[in-house]
Each structure stands twice: as C-alpha cells, then as structure tokens.
Amino acid sequence: MPLMSMCRTYLIACLLLASVSATAGAREWSAGLYSSPTGIGLQAQLPSGDGRETDIISVIADTYGLISGRTADIGVRVGYTHDYIISTYEADGFTMNFHAGAGLTVGYVHDGENGSILGTGEALQKEMGVMAALSGSIGLRFDFTRNAAIDFGLSANPGVHLRMDRENGSMYLSFYRNGLFHALLPHISIMYRF
Amino acid sequence: MKFPLRNIMFRLTLAALMAGGTAAAASAQEGHTPMQTGVFGRFRFSCEWGYVQSVYRDYHYNILSEEGYRINESYYGIDMHPNGLLLAGVGFVPPGELLMVSLHAGYAGIHEDNRVIPALLRMSFFPKKTGRDGMFYYAQAGAGFHMPKTLKTRVSLLSGIGAGYRFALTERCSIDLIITAMAALSRPPIPNPDGPGYVAEQNIRSNSATYGALSLTIAVSI
Which of A1, A20, A94, A104 has the maximum number of C-beta atoms within 10 A of its C-beta? Predict the structure, then answer.
C-alpha cells in the first residue's frame, strides 16, 4: 500500500528531525588542549543558554621550573571561572568573542623563587605546597565553522601558598607570587565544539 | 580663454581624489584589498610548540682538568631526555599554493642543560594546497644560538625533516599536528670532573656532540 509506506516514511522522518532538534537545543560545550609557558592541560568551556556567559574549567599540569631545568617536579592546579561575553565580532568563517570573568583556582605547585621563568639558575630550594587563589581571566575566543575553537587568554591568580619545610618541619604560609608573576604569560586553548 | 594656474591645480587635485575614491570603492565592492590579493596576502604567520624527546647522543671531548691532566672521553648510544620547543614563524606561499618557505625562531632545549634560540629555514610541501585539509611534508635547517652564560655565544647546527596534518579552519587559519625527526650538532657544556659546575672554556681542547630527537608539536597558522 503506497499510502501506508509514505505515511511510515513521513513519520520516521519527523521523529528523526525531532531528535536532531532536541540535540541542537542543548548547550554546546567545547573541550580541548590548554597550553601555556606555565603549564599544559585540559580546558572545557560551557556556555549559558543565551550564549552571553560561559563557565571555564581547567585542569593543568604546572611546569614552573621544569622547562628551565630547575626542578623535576610537576604540580597540578584546577581552576574555575565564570566569564561574561563582553563583545562579539562576526566575520566570514569565524566569530570572535571577548570574554572576562572571575573564579578561583587551587593546586599543589611550586611557588616562584629567584630568577625569571626561563632562568637557568640554581635548582628550586623550596618544597611544593598547596595553593588557593582567586582567579581573574580575560580572553579572546575564535569559533570557526568547523566545530573548532581557539581561545587566547591571560589570567591572574592572587592567593596564598602553604608549604612545609622538610629540614625543620615548619609550615610556611606566603603570598602565591606566581599567581601575579605569570599574569602576563598568555595561554592558548585549542578546543573542539561538541 | 584664460586658465588661471590656481584653477588648473584645483581641478587636477579634484580629479586625483575622485580617481582614488573610485578605485577604493571598486575594490571594496569586489571584497578584496591589496593585502588579500597582493604579495602581502601570501604571507603566513605561525606559532608552534610541543614536546621533544631526545633519543640518541654521541659526544667526544678533550679537556684539561683543574689538576692539570688531560681527559679524553667519548660516548655514543641511546640516551633519552625530554625537552620542549617553541617557535614563531613567518612564511611565504608562492603562487600555486603547493609550497611554503618560512623562517622560524624561538626557544628550544637540546638534551640536558643546553638551550638555544633556533633560527630555522623551512621548506614545506602541501600536496593538497596550503588552504586545504591534508598531509604536508617539510625539511628544515638552521642554527641555534646558545643562551649566553658569558659573552661568548656558541652556535649549534640544527636540521630536521617532518610531516604533519593540516586542519584548515578558514582559507588562512589552520591547526597543524606535526611530527619531526631532528638532529643537532652542538658543543654542550662539559660537567666538571673535579667538582660542581662545568669545565671552563679555556680548559676545553675539543668538544663536539651530536643529538637525535623526535618531536610532536602543534601549530596555529594564520
């Protein structure tokens, strides 16, 4: 019966369209590689329903001192910021969003010691310690038509660093210097949009 | 009929302005600018970074120890050491868009406690053209200028061949994943056999080392 087969085909097509529409209505999140002179890791960005705000979560292996050969330790830090899209520019092939926001970050890392980030001086003397800091970030995100996104950003993390000195067993609480020293070191995130 | 010079100059200036404005309007309507279609539109800028795994090393040095006796040592074999690489590049794509000639400079480590500022000339071949997805292949060579610990700056020779896959995001912007086999000829610092630190320059009679490494890098190109 041609009429029945047509109806069946039409019904299947409607169901397929409905499922695709439901998926399209979901928030489009992106995740990918985070790279910076201060560390390397993973970053995920989850925009709000209206696309004017975004949550950014980063898990980063902190490589302070590693690239300059001053330590063999790798730290870890986890950060969360809630960013607001301040301005948007659309061009042929990509959309550029300027975003900024604040949040916090925690980790187990080395803090800054004498010397620049590329300084090849003496080995780091102090132990790693627990870090807790506020996080302020700004970034420029490029979204391409091919489901890829590239985000350039800067972040400042003023906070505290708590470490133990193994020689005398004392605990030292200090200002987390790298949180401000590394504020001018940019990071780039290359992400895939799901 | 008289034509005062003042009127002639005014009319010539007005004609030039109108001609320039017409040309600008025409190019805007076409959607092209001299930067896009001219020589400047063929330049590409890139930033590349990644991980380098040294796998081979051979060295030979002949030094005078602090106590006055001569030490001659050599070694060759598998020697693993992690390093990093950061390069910024400027490239030119000739008509045809199958080749690219580029200059790269940045910061790289060669094995242990040996860091250079490389300056590399790279020739890349894109079988599927530079603005498309696809594999590409390249060869590079250049010099590495050591981070000066004294006023003397030593120079290493660097070379490599590599292959990569290009993900074209737009006609100009792309993300490349690259694997490279690299070689370096260098004069690394020699550990002092009599104590901490390194052998002084005046006590080194000869010093040469060769390294082989594999690198995995990612590049953003515009």
Answer: A94
Question: How many residues can be counted in chain B?
Answer: 222
The mean per-residue pLDDT over the stretch B119-135 comes to: 95
Q: Do A93 and B169 touch (CB under 8 A)?
A: yes
What pLDDT digit, counting tens, does each position of A147-180 carry? 999 999 999 999 999 998 878 888 899 999 999 9
Burial class (CB in 10 A: 0-12, 13-18, 19+), B83: buried
Pairing state between β A30-36 and A148-156: unpaired
Chain B contact for A35 (CB, 8 A cutoff): yes
Q: What is the pTM of this model?
A: 0.77
- Contact residues on chain B for A39, CB-CB shorter than 8 A: none
Q: Hey, CA dihedral for A43, A47, A52, A55, is it positive or negative? A: negative
Fold classification of A27-193 (topology level) = Porin (2.40.160)
Of B145, B106, B146, the residue nearest B122 (C-alpha): B106
Query: Of B107, B170, B175, which has the smallest distance from its Cβ to A190's Cβ?
Result: B175
CB contact under 8 A, A148 and B167: yes
